[in-house]
Give the backbone structure.
Amino acid sequence: MKYVIIGKIGPRWGDDPARRVDQVHKKLDALKVKLETVYYTQGAYDFMEVVEAEPEAMLALSLWYKTKGYGELTSMPAFSMEEVTNALTT
């Protein structure tokens, strides 16, 4: 399933950003979460990602990210127009 993740970076992130990114990528690999795109943003959230993941993997990622003190994640299931159209016609 596809998810859109919006996130806020916590204070610990700034200690060593390159190392933190590496740790996150290793965790994504371990959880079999496929990162499709990432953008850093200005405003209420610091970044936005699109990933492909199982629901349990998304839960594990969110909990891990928070417990590491990296910040906050909000994940939302994402649907294609075809999926929405199919849901409306069933």
